[in-house]
Every structure is written in C-alpha cells, then in structure tokens.
Amino acid sequence: MYTVIGQPKVRTLRVLWTLEELGQPYDLISAAPGSDLAKTHTGTGKVPALVENGATFTDSIAIMTYLADKHGALTHPAGTKDRMVQDGHMGFLLEEFDAVLWSASKHSFVYPEPLRVPAAKDSLKWEFTRSLARLEDRLGDQPFLMGDTMTIADIVAVHCLNWAFVAKFPPASDGLKAYSKRLRHRPAYRAALSRA
After folding, report:
1. Going from the N-terminus, what domains does the chain have, and what CATH number goes with each?
2. Does the model's pTM come out above 0.70?
3. What is the pLDDT of residue 195?
4. Which of 63, 83, 101, 161 could form a disulfide with 76 if both were Cys (CB 3.0 to 4.6 A apart)?
C-alpha cells in the first residue's frame, strides 16, 4: 500500500485523485508544505510525497506518471504516438498553467514581502488568458484531452483550473468550466478531496 504525504489543498490533490481513479489503497499523512512533519519524511518538506516500500519520492507529475504507468491506466503506453500527444499536453499544462500560477503565488505569499512584485501578476494573468484559449483548442469537443480516454493530463488541467479560480485569475470559457465541473463530479475526485 502507498503512503502519501501532503494535503489536498495543494498539488497533493493530483496524487490522491490519481490513486482514487486507479482504485489503489493508500494512507494519507496530512502535512503542510515545508512543515516539520513534512520535513521528517522528505527532508526538504516538499509535498506531495509518495512512500512505497520505505522509499520516498516527490514531485506530483513524476508520482502520477509512475502510478499511471505501473497500474496501466490514466495513460497511454510509453513509446506510442498517443503517449507523445499526452506528454505534449502535460508539458503545455506545466509550462503554461502550473508555472504561471506558481509564479503568481510566489509574488502573493511565498516570497518574503520585500521580494514580491505585485505588478508581475498582471502579465501572468495576461499569459494565463492566452493559454486558456489554447487549452480550449486542445480539448475541442472531446470529453477529455485525449478524446474518450481520461488521463493524468486531465487531472493536471482541472487542478490548474481550480487553482486559477481560487487565485482569482481570469475565468475560463463556458466549455472549460463544463469540462472542469464534469471531472470534479467524478467519485474519485470527490473521494480525494474528502481526505482534507
């Protein structure tokens, strides 16, 4: 069985949702990022972390990819064209959404106050708005980014859309809102969120 260290209100939700979709049992050790409890498990206090057979791994994307590959679901097989397209979606989401939202967070509450540049958020919001249109193009009229198959890319997309809403970033289109709402109504998402 897996052990996850972190809290659903941060990127840990991605890992919990992945495990729930895969139907894999896990224990959750609720620890805030950088907390003493998290540091006892990861050294740096980085969450999420996955513990398996005494070994600890960090980075939500690496963990999700490992779990999906290991259990043969939420992904396409490595070395296939579908996997290349899926990995392209993941790269896009990390560069155009996650990185932008994380930069805004750093200028809001992560950096020491003298290092924060509140005006930087204006350009980040502009970039995010442009990326929303690109995400909508990638999704098209499909139920998931990879057509009829839900993958870990959808989990990252919905997590970022949720994060953007909380951070008061420009709203998504009606189509992206419907996509996000549909995925948030999945039993696995609700089960992961309930672990708070």
Report:
1. 2-74+189-193 (3.40.30.10), 81-186 (1.20.1050.10)
2. yes
3. 85
4. 83
